[in-house]
User: Fold these one by one.
Assistant:
Number 1:
Amino acid sequence: MARGIEIRDAHFPGRAPIDAYGNGGFRFADMSHKGSLLCLPSGVHGWDIKEGEPLTVDAFGKVLADAGEIEVLLVGTGQNLKPLPAALKAALKARGIASDPMSTGAAVRTYNIMLSESRAVAAALIAV
């Protein structure tokens, strides 16, 4: 029996540069995704967070799970730079991850450069 559309977390099993961002989403690897993204060593995942929502340790669970392969996490906080909460910074630091918040546009550009240099980088990008 046919079922309706099944909504799942977007996932691309690999590392891919971000080709474009804006209008509430991103383009990468010849695909588009509406909403926020986690770009991790394990792949590109949909991230259920919107601009203005609190950045909690729980929201970064997938990042913490991949911590062994991440040295730097770029956090695109939306249109403008917003500092990371102390509890989140502490949780990342405890796993050996340096965190750097910035606007989403700056995070996309920096991520692409660091990825091209084969750095151990990840990005948490809030859609704008």
Number 2:
Amino acid sequence: MKNLIRAAAGALLIPAFVLASAPAQAQETFRIGFVNPDRVLREAQPAKAAQAKLEAEFLKREKELTGQGDALKAASEKFEREAPTLSESQRVTRQRGLVDQDRDFQRKRREFQEDLNARKNEELQQVYERANRVVKQVAETEKYDAILQEAIYINPKHDITDKVIKALNASVSSSAPAAGK
């Protein structure tokens, strides 16, 4: 009798296991990938090219500002040394001149920073758009269902950042000859 009960219970459990595993087999696998946008901006050729372009574009203005700042500092130090020997009117006149120079310097520095930030945002936007197109191409080619750019934790096996960087670099090298024609 015990054997009959065991056989009946076993016969009932087998279809239950088959039914439980059937939905898992019927489901498609969900492929997920991760891209580290910070690494893309540090390592991809388009990002490096954009950075070099910005540096070349703003180098002259930065040198001028540095020179103006150094001149202002030297004038201020000279004033501090000579202030005790100057008359009151000379001291007030030179002090006003230094304040005006400092105000002009601060204004130029602020304008420089605003211009640099605006251009940096323009260049980065172009790199982001290009990178997003490459991410989409990689996702479609390799049949990913989702690509994440931010996560608290991601298993390194899902990280496709290297593939994206390689594809971005390849797109630069393949479009460079075409752009030169």
